[in-house]
Structures are given as structure tokens and as C-alpha cells.
Amino acid sequence: MTRGAGRGGSSGAPRSVDVARLAGVSQKTVSRVFNDEPYVSAEVRRRVLEAAEELGYRLNNAARALASGRTRSIGVVTLGTALYGPASLIMGVERAVRDSGYALRVVNTVEGDPAGVAGAVDSLLDQGVDGIVISEPIDDGHDGDLSGLVDVPILVLGAPPLPAPRALAAGVGAALMARAATEHLLDLGHATVHHLAGPQRWYAARDRLEGWRAALAAHGRTVPPVVEGDWSAASGYAAGHELASDGDMTAVFAANDDMAIGLIRALAEAGRRVPDDVSVVGFDDIPVAAYVNPPLTTMRQPFDAVAQEGLKRLVHSIENPQADPLPASDPPVDLVVRASTAPPPPRMTPGRARRTVSRPSGGRHSPPLNGGTSTQN
């Protein structure tokens, strides 16, 4: 949807005075129509509403014309999902919005809905929000061009910035974290690292695949074929049976912890011990990751930190519309090293017996990567 320009050729958001001029009524009459006040004839009401529709004037424009100037509400567009990553991020956003003193309005999108993000944003603008957070992890190709639709600051989490005039982005460091996870395995001595990817219509899955591939390329290592799952433990289990048939495979970076846990179960059933034969790294650090067998090495995501910083920048743009946006910082790289990773097993050589490699007892550590921290839980 594109906002219409006023008769004077102005390309900004239409105002009530523009509607009044086009409808041939006073600005007070426009206000009465949009506030549903009495003593407005049906004919005048029709003219005002038609003029508003032609110009793309919204009810929230009237709300922002009140003395306060703002509704002190922030809208959130999110995919309705119980997956740990998106659900944790949206919980962090809800806390950050309320801590900032703004009201919260949420619109859930449905995967495959042609209206998608653009329809959800349209709905929030009709409710008069002062800013919008988009935590929409899937690229369904239905987002559309919001450049003419959004006249409030908009914060996009974990995805490329939208083509909107006052767009911000946060939580875009997944590629860096995935690279660090892959380099942890390479630093342990693995010749290469296989990747169990998430569904590629998800921005997060693409970023993690990109980081994995970049790490292998930087170290001049072979890039194995990618196995794609759907974020579930069941898909990781199926992928594990496929990967277990490759006798040369010694390390796997999984795009989330649930798939990593399913993968480990399948490897155990195939007689491939973790970490003695195969090392596995996950992503997210879900609560159960520390308690599976073996405890899972994983990349911890800073959901609350991303939400808090993003909301701070969004509120700054709402309350200081003429100021430059606050700068964004890179998220921390926090690799939690547990017992699912170790050096690779020794290789058999012709005419030589298999030797054993002693490993330190207790836990397995790796040095900090790319400025991140290495934590033993």
C-alpha cells in the first residue's frame, strides 16, 4: 500500500487538514468524524471517509494530533511459534517494552499468509502505535515494500532491515556466532565440520549456514554437503542416521539444540560415540542442554540483551524523531563448552596399530574464539 500525496503534491504522511481540504469541510469536522461524534450528516461523513481513503489518512494520525502527540504504545509483529529461540526473543521484547513505560500491542502472523508482515504492520498502524518491532523469522516472500506504508520507527530483529524510512535492526550476529562454533571444532583438530542446517526460509538458518561456510573457507577446509532439518529433535534424529553412514565424519555443527539432541541419539544408535567418535555443537543453549548425555556444547544466544538494546534504540527514535539513531553493538559470542566436543579420534594407518589419545579428565575446554568467551558449565 502506498500513501497518497495531498493535493499540494506533498509526499509526507497526510494530515487532517489535507482531508478537510479534499472533502470541503473544516478540520474540526474531520475530527468529529474520526471520533464518531454526533451532529455530522451522513453525506459529510461519507465525503470525509472517502477523502481519507484517497489520501491514505489513518485514524492514528488523528490520535497523534492530540495534545500528548503520541499513544505511548509499541506494536510487535511476530510469528506465533513455540520454538525456543523466537519465543525467548519475544518474551524479552515484551519485558523491554513494559520496562520502557509503553503499552504493548501484538499481532501474530501465520506462515504462508499472503498478507504477511505488511498486513500486520498495517493493522498496528491503524491502532495508532508509535513504533513497531518486527520479530518475524521467516522469509515467505510476502513482506512487500513498506517504504510508503510506515511513518513510525520500526525495529527488525534477526533479519535484514526492511525498506522503510526509519528502520533499525538488531540481533543480526548469528553468522558470527555460527562461525565461532565451527572454529571451536576446527581448533580441536577436526579436518572439517558437517552442518545440520535449519529450514532455509528462516533468516536465522541462513545466517548460521553462512557463518559455518565462512569458517571452513577461512581455514581452507572442505565444505561437506548440508543436511537440512526443520528445527525439531525428530529431524535431527533423521539427519543423524544419514550422517552416521559417513565414516569420515567427526564433527557436526547443528543450527539449534533440539536438532543436536536428536542427532546425538541417532549417532549413539549407530554406534558412533559422542564425543569419542563425533563431536557435536548446538545453538541457543536451551535449558535442557546442560542435562542431556553428554551435556551439549552450544552457542548461547543473548535474547534479553538484544531485546533491551533494540527497544532502547527504538524508543530513542520515537522520542527524538530528528536525531540520528543510536548505534548498534555486536552481540556477545558466548560459546558454552560442555562434554559433547573433543579432539577427533586417531586415524588408522596401514601397518600400524590404532593408538589411543589421552584426553584431560573432568571437562573439555577450548580457548575463547573471535573475542568471545568460553565457559565450562
Q: Nutshell version of this structure?
A:
By secondary structure, the protein is an alpha/beta fold. It is built from eleven helices and twelve strands.
Would you kindly provide a written description of the structure presented here, covering whatever features stand out?
This protein has 377 residues and is an alpha/beta fold. It is 36% helix and 15% strand. Strands 7-6-8-9-10-11-12 form a 7-stranded mixed sheet, sandwiched between helices. Helix 7 (174-187) packs across helix 8 and helix 9 (233-244) crosses helix 10 (257-269). The longest helix is centred in the last third of the chain and has 17 residues, at 303-319. It is elongated, with a radius of gyration of 26 Å. The protein starts with 15 loop residues before the first helix and ends with a strand. The model is unreliable at 1-11, 61-68 and 348-377 (pLDDT under 50).
Keyphrases for this structure?
single chain; alpha/beta; seven-stranded mixed sheet; elongated; disordered C terminus
Layout of helices and strands, plus pairs?
Blueprint: H1 16-23, H2 27-34, H3 42-55, H4 59-64, E1 73-79, H5 84-99, E2 103-109, H6 116-126, E3 131-135, E4 154-157, E5 167-170, H7 174-187, E6 194-197, H8 203-218, E7 227-228, H9 233-244, E8 251-254, H10 257-269, E9 279-284, E10 297-300, H11 303-319, E11 334-337, E12 373-376
Parallel strand pairs: 1-2, 1-3, 3-4, 4-5, 6-7, 6-8, 8-9, 9-10, 11-12
Antiparallel strand pairs: 10-11
